[in-house]
């Protein structure tokens, strides 16, 4: 194990000028050689870029959205830098590059590739500002384009890592740099064999930190969040919650599989394989211990609540009085795979297949068109999927109160319900 450490700062930790000053305070006494700092896009930048893409896809004007996004970043810079600072010229060049890319043709057929060509600009903006701000305050760091390190296949939006090439790049392009200076780089983005931008899945910056840590054989990874560590429930959505002081890799992986937002689902595997501990800490209270995820025999049986919003329930019903067989299941999954739609929940009855997905409107239209001749299809939108790990009976009853229930299922250690708040409650 090397002495290298990896820090990852999410969007909330760089969302405005005050957050940037707080990041500076965190790093002032922690920054050192053999350190990689992975940065997400600032605040809700990725959401703003997705809205621009939606408008572009629907043929609507997105110029005001573009201007607002540019002014958002420039406003932060005006609070952090003198007006003559070079960061303004660098940002202007990045926004000009994004503008040119937005003029390219977009269609349903090339949406995923187009998405990846635009969405990563958020991380390019933020990492540039972070690097320049640290240097402006006498913390000398280098900037590294993650697309030169993280090599992937061409599965746009959900790119799979080419571990051999990525490991080689980290050893030849990154290791020598961090031996002399800390390095700031971007989360979430990579590139394929033709150097086209790719992304690792929404919220994929955690995964980037794990990839780099694995390739550099780092001693630890620390993810800085706006929560005190890994909790058994999202404090923004639940009134009571519990902080885990430590978790085993397997238990953490199970939580992320069902959608726990504190860590990206793919983060755990490379760290567990390399036995690299993961710390989840609060950038609001950086001296607090947070949560340590590592190999431990300690397994908590405390009920854990994972809530996914903006969910879509689709039911495919056979039309010829036969029963559901493997052929029909394969048919549905074949189309889901081609559209890169991930199933969050599945339930099969004698005559129907029901699936729960994240809402993606234009992809829903394509899915329905492709399968309408094979099934009678019904769907409900704007639902919630609540998963309870290690459920207790009292907890299960309370989550059904005041909700309309569309689907539920239970195993020995997991309870899931698809629900919508009653309008009268």
From TrEMBL:
<dbReference type="GO" id="GO:0009088">
    <property type="term" value="P:threonine biosynthetic process"/>
</dbReference>
<keyword id="KW-0547">Nucleotide-binding</keyword>
<dbReference type="GO" id="GO:0009090">
    <property type="term" value="P:homoserine biosynthetic process"/>
</dbReference>
<keyword id="KW-0808">Transferase</keyword>
<dbReference type="InterPro" id="IPR042199">
    <property type="entry name" value="AsparK_Bifunc_asparK/hSer_DH"/>
</dbReference>
<dbReference type="InterPro" id="IPR001048">
    <property type="entry name" value="Asp/Glu/Uridylate_kinase"/>
</dbReference>
<keyword id="KW-0067">ATP-binding</keyword>
<comment type="pathway">
    <text>Amino-acid biosynthesis; L-methionine biosynthesis via de novo pathway; L-homoserine from L-aspartate: step 1/3.</text>
</comment>
<dbReference type="InterPro" id="IPR001341">
    <property type="entry name" value="Asp_kinase"/>
</dbReference>
<dbReference type="InterPro" id="IPR036393">
    <property type="entry name" value="AceGlu_kinase-like_sf"/>
</dbReference>
<comment type="pathway">
    <text>Amino-acid biosynthesis; L-threonine biosynthesis; L-threonine from L-aspartate: step 1/5.</text>
</comment>
<dbReference type="GO" id="GO:0004072">
    <property type="term" value="F:aspartate kinase activity"/>
</dbReference>
<dbReference type="GO" id="GO:0005524">
    <property type="term" value="F:ATP binding"/>
</dbReference>
<protein>
    <recommendedName>
        <fullName>Aspartokinase</fullName>
        <ecNumber>2.7.2.4</ecNumber>
    </recommendedName>
</protein>
<keyword id="KW-0418">Kinase</keyword>
<dbReference type="GO" id="GO:0009089">
    <property type="term" value="P:lysine biosynthetic process via diaminopimelate"/>
</dbReference>
<keyword id="KW-0028">Amino-acid biosynthesis</keyword>
<dbReference type="GO" id="GO:0005829">
    <property type="term" value="C:cytosol"/>
</dbReference>
<comment type="similarity">
    <text>Belongs to the aspartokinase family.</text>
</comment>
<feature type="domain" description="Aspartate/glutamate/uridylate kinase">
    <location>
        <begin position="3"/>
        <end position="282"/>
    </location>
</feature>
<dbReference type="Pfam" id="PF00696">
    <property type="entry name" value="AA_kinase"/>
</dbReference>
């Amino acid at each position: 194990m090397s002495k290298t450490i990896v820090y990852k700062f999410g969007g909330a930790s760089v969302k405005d000028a005050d957050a940037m000053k707080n990041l500076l305070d965190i790093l002032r006494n922690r920054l050192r050689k053999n350190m990689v700092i992975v940065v997400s896009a600032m605040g809700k930048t990725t959401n703003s870029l997705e809205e621009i893409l939606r408008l572009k896809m629907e043929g609507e004007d997105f110029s005001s959205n573009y201007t607002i996004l540019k002014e958002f970043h420039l406003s932060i810079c005006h609070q952090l830098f003198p007006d003559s600072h070079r960061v303004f010229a660098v940002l202007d060049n990045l926004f000009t590059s994004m503008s040119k890319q937005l003029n390219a043709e977009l269609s349903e057929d090339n949406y995923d590739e187009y998405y990846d060509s635009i969405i990563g600009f958020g991380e390019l903006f933020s990492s540039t500002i972070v690097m320049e701000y640290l240097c402006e305050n006498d913390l000398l760091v280098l900037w590294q384009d993650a697309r030169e390190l993280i090599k992937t296949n061409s599965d746009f939006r959900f790119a799979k890592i080419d571990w051999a090439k990525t490991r080689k790049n980290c050893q030849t392009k990154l290791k020598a740099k961090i031996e002399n200076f800390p390095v700031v780089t971007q989360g979430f983005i990579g590139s394929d064999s033709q150097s086209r931008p790719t992304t690792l899945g929404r919220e994929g910056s955690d995964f980037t930190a794990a990839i780099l840590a694995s390739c550099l054989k780092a001693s630890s990874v620390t993810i800085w969040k706006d929560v005190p560590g890994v909790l058994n429930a999202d404090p923004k959505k639940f009134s009571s919650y519990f902080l885990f002081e430590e978790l085993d890799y397997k238990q953490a992986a199970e939580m992320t599989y069902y959608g726990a937002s504190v860590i990206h689902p793919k983060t755990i595997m490379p760290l567990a394989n390399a036995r690299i501990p993961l710390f989840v800490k609060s950038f609001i209270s950086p001296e607090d211990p947070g949560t340590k995820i590592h190999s431990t025999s300690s397994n908590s049986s405390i009920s854990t609540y994972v809530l996914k919003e903006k969910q879509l329930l689709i039911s495919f019903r056979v039309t010829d009085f036969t029963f559901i067989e493997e052929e029909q299941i394969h048919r549905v999954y074949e189309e889901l795979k081609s559209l890169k739609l991930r199933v969050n929940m599945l339930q099969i009855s004698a005559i129907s297949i029901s699936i729960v997905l994240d809402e993606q409107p234009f992809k829903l239209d394509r899915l329905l068109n492709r399968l309408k001749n094979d099934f009678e299809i019904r769907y409900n939108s704007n639902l919630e999927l609540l998963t309870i790990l290690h459920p207790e009976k009292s907890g299960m009853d309370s989550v059904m109160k005041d909700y309309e229930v569309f689907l539920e299922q239970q195993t020995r250690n997991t309870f899931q319900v698809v629900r919508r708040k009653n309008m009268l409650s």
